[in-house]
Amino acid sequence: MITRRTALRAGIASASVLGTAGLLLPAVNAAANEGDTGGGAAEPDLDPAAIPKFAQRMPLPPVLSPYLVTATTSYYSMTMKEAAKEILPGRSTTVRTFNGSFPGPVVKAETGRRVVVRQTNTLAHPTSVHLHGAHVPPDSDGSPMDLIAANGGTKTYTYPNTQPHANLWFHDHAHHLESENVFRGLTATYLLTDDTERRLNLPSGTYDVPVQLRDARFAESGALVYEMHDIFNRNVVLANGKPWPYFEVAARKYRFRIVNAANMRFFELRLADGSEIIQIGSDGGLLPAPHRTASVPVSPGERADIVIDFSRYPVGSTIELKNVSTAAPGPVELIGRVLQFRVTRSAADSSVVPAVLRTLPALPAVTGQRSIELRMDETGSPNDLAYLDGKVYDMNRIDQEIAYGASEIWTVTNANQLAPHNFHMHLVQFRVLERNGRPVTSGPESGLKDTVSLLPGETVKLQATFTGYRGTYVYHCHIFDHGAMGMMANMRIS
User: What is the pLDDT of residue 327?
Assistant: First the structure.
């Protein structure tokens, strides 16, 4: 069998596609793919313990301005390119970016107002830009084989923004390439708002902070080191592109819009003193009511919209945000730490977190049910594959035929004994009905979702309604390495 690794090393021309054993591999220039590792595989790793903790300020991603604004539409231009960044103090790291920014820029959009983005790909391999969580026509969905050619190819994506407010994000989705492209930085943020959200007096302006979390592995030179399914060695935690940074806050409420942009790393965020975090939203926007908790789990691809009230701390305090997830391995002194808050000043605060955030519409009548199984080989071999319902992804195979307008219950099970997974559907935001047989009526999964975590042996029931657009979309595990190994399938709405 030709594996992903052997296909990449074969140096197949970038315009071609190779089909084998039900897999379709987008071509890639092997030299370009491997050249980003700096000193190469022989270069020793940088010891993560040697990286200073809480020594760098957490930056804020730039807000992208449209180049044209009309009565109905905002037009943006983005360029995918390599850039050299000082992620580690005193070292230069080559990353793959949107517009040279790491993390990528923020697009601010409004429900009912269209956004058009012209993407130019100057990288040495093809890409496909997916706006994760967006309700869009299939030709703007960024499907795994809808590729933008390398070295100057362009594609224009149209986002109608007919859905309610949501915290969305861009990432590459070129099959078998998405894992490495995202690992190397090809992500950005898209914040969609509406009147429902604007009417609430939540923390806003400089007190509303986007945060992208991910993990990484570095060589001594500062180069990123990418290997498939390399969870054991990605032990540097980055917040907005900096390892274990600090962030200065005033003694008042802040809103943090968390995106887990890691390939595989599960986070469960907790303040070191165990004090309250208020989760106000998830993937598809605000929850019906605030969820007051000590910890906030977020699997790869998921978003968590949280409020932290720093008024309970005196000016001069430091508070550490920790990761207490047990779903992925790593030294707790490394992957168990995320960032440090420094309370540096007092500030007036008129913001509130109301007891009711939004009212979700009643679920429609169920028209059908399906069962989905997530499973991957657990031998540790480089030839391991990952499966949806026992099959690896084939772009030419339709795995689920769905009637337009249908509202279905999908029962999704992680059949593995060791590996965690999660489940993401394109086109739709769904509702989680049950987790492991227990109804979900409140809490972090009570809102609109597009990605849901499944630890080994877990089962979730979700309800999705397929309206808006007809066409073929994918559903898959959003652990990028698992999707690249084949854990993805096609659904056709017609």
Answer: 87
Instruction: Name the residue with tokens 């490394």.
Output: 334
Spatial separation of the C-alpha atoms in residues 61 and 173, rounded to whole Å = 21
Length of the chain: 494
Q: Are 168 and 96 part of one and the same domain? A: yes
Q: By C-alpha distance, which of 123, 127, 110, 119 is closest to 71?
A: 110
Query: Does residue 161 share a domain with residue 285?
Result: no
Report the sign of the C-alpha dihedral through residues 63, 244, 334, 338, in that order.
negative
CATH of the domain at 487: 2.60.40.420
> Residue 321: which H helix or E strand, with range?
strand 318-323
Range of the domain at 113: 4-36+55-197
- Which residue in 127, 208, 96, 133 sits closest to 450, CA to CA? 133
pLDDT bin (cut points 50, 70, 90) of residue 75 is very high
Distance from C-alpha of 127 to C-alpha of 138, rounded to nearest angstrom: 16
Yes or no: say if 412 and 434 are a contact pair by the CB < 8 Å rule: no
Question: Do 136 and 252 have their domain in common?
Answer: no
Write the CA distances from 187 to 96, 104, 209, 224, 263, integer angstroms: 9, 6, 17, 16, 11
This prediction's pTM = 0.93
